[in-house]
Design brief:
The chain is α+β, with helices and mostly antiparallel strands. It has one domain (30-115): 2-Layer Sandwich (NE0471 N-terminal domain-like). It is 35% helix and 24% strand. It has 4 helices and 6 strands. The strands form 2 sheets. It has a 3-stranded antiparallel beta sheet with strand order 1-2-3. Strands 4-5-6 form a 3-stranded antiparallel beta sheet. Strand 1 and strand 2 (43-48) form a beta hairpin. It is elongated, with a radius of gyration of 18 Å. The mean pLDDT is 92.
Length: 116
């Protein structure tokens, strides 16, 4: 394997480009500011930075379908706001994926659509 060396100036330039890309993504990609479990509707409700709110039924989401009310209520928004996490269920879902209608892996989605 070849060792790649970069000097400080190249490193700083790459770091600055990465920071700008991250800032751009923060404004162009959907970011959650809060998420909660609605036990009455058995849905996860997500508020986006834009003020938009969306929800989805727990039964269609891989990793959380079948979770208890207590487990589902432990939903956390990731620090960047780009994902939802359930520690007790060891489950993660991407906000962009959910908004695009992806509630799990390809196999999960195929099974889901076959059952609807």
């Amino acid at each position: 394997m070849t060792e790649r060396n970069i000097d400080d100036r190249d490193f700083e330039a790459q770091l600055e480009r990465a920071r700008r890309a991250a800032e751009l993504n923060a404004f162009t990609e959907p970011r959650a500011v809060s998420a909660a479990y609605d036990a009455a509707g058995q849905r996860i409700v997500v508020e986006l930075r834009s003020g938009a709110v969306f929800s989805f039924p727990v039964r269609i989401a891989q990793g959380i379908a079948g979770g208890s009310a207590a487990e589902l209520a432990e939903v956390e928004v990731t620090p960047a706001g780009d994902g939802l996490h359930w520690e007790g269920l060891d489950a993660d879902l991407s906000v962009a994926g959910l908004l695009a209608g992806r509630f799990g892996s390809e196999a999960w989605m195929a099974g889901l659509w076959a059952s609807l």
